Amino acid sequence: MQNLKSSCERLFRLYYKHNQEPDLDTLYNLLNSIHSLNDIFSRTLKDNFFESDEFIALKALRNLYHHQSEIQNEFKLIPIEDGSVFISDLMYLCIIKKSSAEEAIQNIDKKYREEERKKINKVFKWYNHVVNINPSIFNFVVKVYEKMESHGISLSTDDYLEFKNSYDFEIQNGYSHFISGDIRCHPNDMGKIYNMEFS
Questions:
Q1: What pLDDT digit, counting tens, does each position of 103-129 carry?
Q2: pLDDT tens for residues 151-162?
Q3: Radius of gyration (Cα) for the chain, nearest Å?
Q4: What is the pTM of this model?
């Protein structure tokens, strides 16, 4: 059980760094941590995250980056310029090239590809040239927290407690724990979102 708790601690630590101090390695390390956590859950508790569409999507990316392609991602603030107003659940976008997401899908075993393509299309946010994966990451971490709760696993790390406090606040105020990740704006401004490019 200690290995499982250590793996959970690592996930929340890397998730916090992904959000607060992103660098060239944070997404790669977080995706590997997600993959490892699923393995350890399976071995320790005979449980896993394969029922989570977000896990399926993030696993496909992890497999691409781990076995075939160097990861390329960018963090972007939701753009506010020229009087435009953009509203979303998260302030930051974590975008990858659309071609990387498509390649990750193509690398899924043919037996599962079409079923998993539908799940990935649903949980990633697709724009013209890029894909925002941050909502999938956020919602997956919520599912990790809830699975930990269902198995009576709790941690004492600052990263975990910060997440727990946010989760409890949502319960107290009747808010959903999950986000849509949609970006809402005036129709005239939507082109600025759909035409985002990698730097």
A1: 999 999 999 999 999 999 999 999 888
A2: 999 999 999 999
A3: 17
A4: 0.90
* Amino acid (1-letter code) at residue 199: S
Backbone angles phi, psi at 160, to 5 degrees: -65, -45
State the Cα–Cα distance between residues 141 and 15, nearest whole angstrom. Answer: 8
Q: How far is CA 96 from the centre of its chain?
A: 12
- Provide the token pair at 6: 């250590």
Question: What does the DSSP assignment read for the chain?
Answer: -HHHHHHHHHHHHHHHHHHHS--TTHHHHHHHHHHHHHHHHHHHHS--STT-HHHHHHHHHHHHHHHT----EEEEEPP--TT---B-S-SEEEEEEHHHHHHHHHTS-HHHHHHHHHHHHHHSEE-SSEEE-HHHHHHHHHHHHHHHHHTT----SHHHHHHHHHHHHHHHHT--SS-----B--GGGHHHHHT----
Decide which of 114 and 87 is more confident. Answer: 114
Residue position matching structure tokens 């107003």: 85
Closest to 79 (Cα-Cα) out of 67, 87, 89: 87
Provide the mean pLDDT of the chain: 89
